[in-house]
Amino acid sequence: QAQLVESGGGLVQPGGSLRLSCVGSGITLDDYSMGWFRQAPGKERKDASCISVDDNDDLSPYYANSVKGRFTISRDSAKNTVYLDMDSLKPDDTAVYYCAALSFVNYAFDPPKYEADYWGQGTHVTVSS
To answer: Among 37, 31, 9, which Cα is nearest to 123's?
Structure first.
């Protein structure tokens, strides 16, 4: 059974950094575009905003304006893992973060429209002093 498992969330002070990990089991992440999404606490995952997508090609990943220049998406194929490095964190970054394996991404829209085949369970990030 395919599964995505996120980790790395926690409490961090403003200006700090975190690395989120998304490990795939029963699924080869390199076969998919991989996205990171976030939603404000208390809201449903269906309302999650797309913040970054990597198509596993030579093109630059997508980043939402709110995270551009601060967050970096990357992959480790050997570990079947996708990462989200988050720097210069702000209180507005407080959210539940999800990774998803995407079978379709339409970059004609911003944020892009997508079809997600698999979602992780989410990891909480709290940015507070």
So the answer is: 9
- Taking phi over 0 as left and psi of -120 to 50 as alpha, with beta for the rest, 66 belongs to alpha
Instruction: Give me the residue label for tokens 């797309």.
Output: 50
Neighbours of 107 (CB within 10 A): 13
Instruction: Give the pLDDT mean for 48-63.
Output: 92
Q: Are strands 123-127 and 10-12 parallel, antiparallel or unpaired?
A: parallel
Confidence of residue 106 (pLDDT cuts 50, 70, 90): very high
Q: Name which of 80, 115, 112, 87 is nearest 100 in CA terms.
A: 115
68 is written with which tokens?
Answer: 């551009």
Residues β-bridged to residue 99: 36
Q: Is the pLDDT of residue 57 over 90?
A: no
Picking from 12-21, 39-48, 80-89, 101-110, which range would have the lowest pLDDT averaged per residue?
A: 39-48
Q: State how far the Cα of 63 lies from the Cα of 53, in Å rounded to an integer.
A: 7
User: Within 13 Å of residue 60, how many CA atoms lie on the same side as its CB?
Assistant: 6
What 3-state DSSP class applies to 77? helix
